[in-house]
Amino acid sequence: MGDLCVRDLCVRPAGEADLSALVRLRDDAARWMLARGITGQWRPGELDEDHFRRVMADGDGEVWLAEVGGRAVGGWELWWEDEAAWGPQPPVAGYVHRLMVDRDAAAPGTGRLLLTAAERRVAEVGRTCVRLDCLAGNARLNAYYEAEGYRVVGHKEGKPQPGGAPPKSFTLREKDLREKDLREKDLRGKDLREKDLRPYSP
Q1: Is 194 exposed, middle or buried (0-12, 13-18, 19+ CB in 10 A)?
Q2: End-to-end distance of the chain based on CA atoms, in angstroms?
Q3: pLDDT, tens only, 155-198
Q4: Closest residue by Cα to residue 72 from 135, 114, 115, 18
Q5: Which of 9, 20, 24, 65 is most deeply packed, by most CB within 10 A?
Q6: Over the range 67-101, which residues count as b (16 or more CB within 10 Å of their CB) and which as e?
Q7: Among 59, 105, 111, 66, residue whose Cα is nearest residue 81
Q8: Contact by Cβ (8 Å): 46, 72
Q9: Torsion of the alpha carbons at 111, 114, 120 and 124, rounded to the nearest 10
Q10: How many CA atoms lie within 13 A of 154 on its CB side?
Q11: Taking a C-beta distance cutoff of 8 angstroms, is the pair 89, 123 a contact?
Q12: What is the separation of C-alpha 146 from the centre of its chain, rounded to a whole number of angstroms?
């Protein structure tokens, strides 16, 4: 999948020049959670530029960035395997990690658009489902993914965490793309016309 724009939101693969923006997005998302009493999920300072650099360099992972007017407003990691959470699996899925949105700059519904872009990428490479793990104790986030069509398929106790954080327990969720209409949704929940999703040109 090349660079795409949905109205003012442009999505593209992240590069070396985006590392500081990715760290900012992750730390800001962690602070937003803590300010609302969501503990046990993310902490500021857990991940540095080297983390995202390693994912970019790994043939089993990608990092994507979303921008509005040249400002980074969201991002995510997409892995092609995740044995730490899911164990050995046949190559049928993509694994979404660290879906991040800048709450001060992004429009409502941006997270949903990023998730849809990730699903399109997975479908593009010929895989049939998207998987993610969600902190078991985060009821709000579990409800969000449930509403987006990600059903519970298992649980993972004591999953190792990056940055030396203690292991955590996660709910494993999966969405079968064969059962999903991949048309984009606009912020009001209506279908976007194909002209609203166009190749990106700077």
Answers
A1: exposed
A2: 16
A3: 998 776 666 667 778 999 999 999 855 444 443 444 433 334 33
A4: 18
A5: 65
A6: bbeeebbbbbbbbbebeebbeeeeeebbbbbbbbb
A7: 59
A8: no
A9: -150
A10: 9
A11: no
A12: 15
| Residue whose C-alpha is closest to residue 112's, from 183, 39, 21 | 183
Q: Strands 168-176, 129-135: parallel, antiparallel or unpaired by DSSP?
A: antiparallel
Q: Which helix (H) or strand (E) holds 34?
A: helix 19-35
At position 86, the amino acid (one-letter code) is W
Token pair recorded at residue 142: 């579990």
DSSP reduced 3-state for 78: strand
Structure tokens at 148: 């987006």
Q: Dump pLDDT digits (tens) for 49-74.
A: 999 999 999 888 999 999 998 899 99
| Helix (H), strand (E) at residue 23 | helix 19-35
* Tokens matching residue 66: 């979303």
Q: Which residues contact 159 (CB under 8 A, 6 or more apart)?
A: 84, 85, 133, 167, 168, 169, 170
CA dist list (Å): 42 to 39, 55, 87, 130, 166? 7, 18, 23, 22, 11
Residue with tokens 């530029």: 49
**CB half-sphere exposure, 38, CA atoms < 13 A:** 18
pTM: 0.83
β-pair partners for 159: 168
